Amino acid sequence: MNNNRPLSPHLSIYKKVLPAVFSILHRFTGIGLSFCSVIIVLWICLIALGENYFYLFKQVSENLMFKIIFIIWTIGLFYHLFNGIRYLYWSFGVGMDLKQIYISGYVVILLTLASSVLVWFT
Prior knowledge:
Layout: H1 18-49, H2 51-61, H3 64-91, H4 98-121
């Protein structure tokens, strides 16, 4: 037991396949959306508190870092949405062929990027 090897096959040994990466990313985006929803609730509360507080939020939201965070949030939102629809189809047994799994994964990426670009740059 003096050697520094893992006792069982470790994650670093396995090849990262697309469905596994999408599953992990789906969970991370769900957690991220939960945290960012707090910011949206604060924004709504600031609107309700009056004009001065909303003006404060407006100044903060004009910051470049704030905009980058919301762009990442939008990408996460669309990814979680489209990948969730993909998982919903899988629940009914649709698209479970390995080729269809990879095609639907690339469609999720394409729809995520296209939707995010439409929201932010049009």
